[in-house]
């Protein structure tokens, strides 16, 4: 049966979604090294050639799958700004804790991390399309707090972002301890107060 | 020619060293996914069976290679303690900066990181044999500073370790910026002072 032109894009979009979903699921099930275009195609119910028409590699498919995931979650591109920096950061960190404890998210992000470590070109694309944007969003919130006098004037905001958001990611990556709201709160308090005794 | 019993261990040790060196070199050259026992054996000039007699997998070989590397470097198991916390941490962080900028170290550590992400059993062994020990060494130095009154009494030392040492590792892992002594100093100052305006 011939397709109308109106049907074709819908069908493409359905295949595209099926491929992205299959890539995420399989990455979680078998890990990045064992992930294959063949298996993604079989799970998505499409031919290998359909995948190769849109993506050059399994890494590229997985990348788009994770990108789609984060775009759904955070249609917003700013962090909450109620004027209370500590409360706002706590909200964001607790959401991150929930995300990292979700098994599907955990496994597909681990697969993506492997892909980024193995493919420098993909890693550069990831930084441009997602990581740098997320960093700037966090930095904007700290800058607003700095202007309001809640963050010291001489604080380097890039370092501050790393200090607040890095430890949770490190603990997740190295599985060195449980990812809990309590740990997030401890990190936040330590970052805000610093290590030195306060006068 | 028959070997004496005294010769055998020496020859074993020489093969073992050749295998570890070959594993590190190849991991740096081709990455973890493409690393193979065959290639390690060929480079080391031993048979595949020699490797399989001592290690169950390529991940295990690479793990021992990196472990040997870190044991050579840090025969010491404490951080410098001159009584000046900031100066001592700066010394250690600058050494880390040099290490992370060494191409051989960079590539083999990236390969190991992939292996740890893909193999949870290996990751657990790595934590037991290396990561936890290094964490405790850093924590000991901060505890000594806390006792000396240079770190506030209520600071959580596990969080403090993450705050000081995590950001360099994150930047290295994600290639989000240059790994420089200046960046290390900024991290250190920010961690010690905290974000809040000081009295």
Automatic annotation (TrEMBL), chains A, B:
Q: Which domain of life is it from?
A: Bacteria
- Which residues, as ranges, make up the DNA-binding region of this protein? 36-55
Q: Which organism is it from?
A: Phytoactinopolyspora alkaliphila
Q: Which Pfam families match?
A: TetR_C_11, TetR_N
Provide any one GO MF term from the record: DNA-binding transcription factor activity
Residue limits of the HTH tetR-type domain? 13-73
Entry keywords, A to Z:
DNA-binding, Transcription, Transcription regulation
Mind telling me what this protein is named? TetR/AcrR family transcriptional regulator
Protein's UniProt keywords contain Transcription regulation: yes
């Amino acid at each position: 049966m011939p397709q109308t032109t109106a049907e074709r894009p819908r069908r493409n979009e359905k295949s595209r979604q099926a491929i992205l979903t299959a890539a995420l699921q399989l990455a979680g099930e078998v890990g990045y090294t064992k992930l294959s275009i063949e298996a993604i195609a079989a799970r998505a119910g499409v031919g290998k050639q359909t995948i190769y028409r849109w993506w050059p590699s399994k890494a590229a498919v997985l990348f788009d799958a994770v990108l789609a995931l984060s775009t759904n979650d955070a249609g917003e591109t700013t962090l909450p700004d109620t004027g209370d920096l500590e409360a706002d950061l706590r909200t964001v960190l607790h959401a991150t804790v929930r995300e990292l404890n979700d098994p599907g998210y955990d496994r597909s992000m681990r697969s993506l991390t492997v892909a980024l470590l193995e493919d420098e070109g993909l890693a550069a694309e990831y930084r441009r399309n997602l990581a740098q944007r997320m960093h700037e969003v966090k930095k904007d919130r700290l800058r607003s707090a700095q202007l309001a006098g809640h963050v010291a004037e001489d604080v380097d905001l890039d370092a501050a972002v790393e200090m607040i958001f890095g430890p949770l990611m490190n603990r997740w990556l190295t599985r060195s301890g449980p990812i809990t709201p309590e740990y997030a709160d401890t990190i936040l308090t330590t970052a805000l107060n610093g290590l030195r005794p306060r006068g």
